[in-house]
Amino acid sequence: MGGFTSDIKSIYWPETCTLVTLALPICGAQLAQAGMSVVDVMMTGRHNATDLAAVSVGSSLWMPLMLFMTGTLMGLTPIVAHLLGGQRHDAIRPAVHQALWVALALGLLSAILLWVAVTPIFERMDVPSSVAKESAAYLSAVAFGMPGIALFQALRAFSDGMNHTRPALWISLIGLAVNVPCNYLLIYGGEGLSILFGDLAPVSWQQLPALGAFGCGIATAISMWTMAIAMALYTRRGNTYRSVSLWQQLTPPRLAGIRELVVVGVPIGVAIFVEVTLFTLIALFIASFGEVTVGAHQIALSYTTILFMLPMSLSMALTVRVGNTLGQQRLTMARQVAWNGIVISVIVAAINSTLLWFTAPWVISLYTSNADIQALALTIISLAVIFQLSDSLQVNLAGALRGYKDTRIVMVITVLSYWIVGLGGGHWLGTYGLGSVSDPLGVHGYWMGLIAGLSTAACLLAWRLKRISRQE
Description:
This protein is an all-alpha fold and 472 residues long.
């Protein structure tokens, strides 16, 4: 008993403090970036219903692209963490430069897709012509910002790998601060200037046209490039990065460095893309259940997504800590760091479940006053309380494995668990039920499928982490 207490004091408690210190700024940055999407929806909704629909439909196309880019570039974090832990500072700069080349290529490719592919997609989806026109304009503006957000995410992954997670928080807040006034100006035109500056706004400026959804896209692109430029300036002048001399000399593209990032990062991007499409497909499947069901599902999903930011941030911090320790060749310590993070994820899950259970009625009432939607949302959240443990476990187990640069198996497990068990099982329960045992379970069946999928992922990832940590 005395030895265990000594380990807590000498190993686990300091490691827990370090992990939480890294994770909290990441969580703040995630919330700030999510806040930009919330602001876009709120402000276009106040303009008119067509612009709101255009931004909502457009976001469903560019957000998965951005998340795939983000996931791919997250592969840089364990690479930098390993190099930093091994004191190989000279190798960090070329690794980051290869990530910047990849980011630029992904950003340009995403921009081209948003320019040329959206109209055929809208035609196939039978999107109303007025909404399709505004949404295409919105996406054409957002496309200019995709290279910027890709470069920001690459530099953020570098900074996180250097154990410096606070810059992403402050710069994400800067992006949000730029986004709001730009939205006022570009969505509402002269009216927006009057809202911002009152009588101080020049009369000539008050004649500016209201651009609606297109203006929202321009504001989003401006925010993306603002974040990229701010991050570049910070990494150039920040004391933390002086040992790397990141901007001293640009390394040309090198196949070996790009291959390493792609091998580690693309499976992360695919795993995140699979998770996003899981919830997108569920939303499409339950659309036929009626407005009350759709509304209740979206409310429950929105609230649980906000709470998920903390375990997800903990996962990103755990990647850094495991990578740092492995870079130092402290293999036993790396295993202890990984499993200590998993224990912390269980505690976070307990906190989230408690918050959901006690605050659900009040939070749901903030979303809607419809009694039917409130009642259904409350039953869905009661299921969400159950999967907080498996959700927190699976994302942090995946984070620890990324610290080991073990991403391909994580991708395979994620695809199988999410699409086959989660989506397939949920669709079966929701549409057909359990045969003679029960009738179709509707939206509750889909959420039961989520519980099964996340639990399957957690079990398989735990097996993988146990195996690879022992091999190392």
